Amino acid sequence: MGAMVKANLEAEGFAVAWETSGEGGLAAHGRESADLVVLDLNLPGMGGFEVLATLRRRADKVPVIILTARSGGEDRVRGLSSGADDYVTKPFAMLELVARIQAILRRSEPEAPFQRTARSGPYRIDYLHFTVFRGRTDLGLGLKEFRLLEVLVAHPGRVHSRADLVNLAWEADARPTLRTVDRHIHALRKKLGDSDENPAIQTLEREGYRWTLPVKR
């Protein structure tokens, strides 16, 4: 789960330090202060609640999102009253987690610029409204198609295997087949008006897909 969250957040452009224990997380944060902490509760050694209490006892105001399988109301109340900024339970949608992270970062750093759009070739990508335009035309992408496009555009030129796209574009509890990825890519290319001669999304047999156009953010 930690590896999946790390990969998804890196695909969104975040720099991520992943630690598998409470003590390790506090030490990493001490070496280089994080802008935000995603905190599990069921950690070996020092548990998540103790990590949170330690941060707040030190007057550390780093935003904290608790990400846990413990969905009980008592745990949620305890987490939020102890100083957590948000509480997300598993299973969860990565898009929701990313949106919550971005919302908290915007609140905690109001002067920080938030990337609303990007341009790539003839396409304008609106991250705020999950839409893609070609000229003035909204291409009508579904949420999954937009998510696949978002992952590919985040690293133009990088080959993403079908398994990578499953991990990055689908929710943690989803189990789509690799052929499902192909079908969604086919639908995405059709809506983009992508050509086989000069494709924006290039297919590499047995390897996966990559975005070929330069991106201006």
TrEMBL record:
Residue ranges annotated for the Response regulatory domain, each copy included: 1-105
Pfam families given in the database record: Response_reg, Trans_reg_C
A single GO BP: regulation of DNA-templated transcription
Signal peptide, first to last residue: none
Domain called OmpR/PhoB-type: residue spans: 115-213
Source species: Mesoterricola sediminis
Gene name of this polypeptide: phoB
Descriptive protein name: DNA-binding response regulator
Stored SMART domains: REC, Trans_reg_C
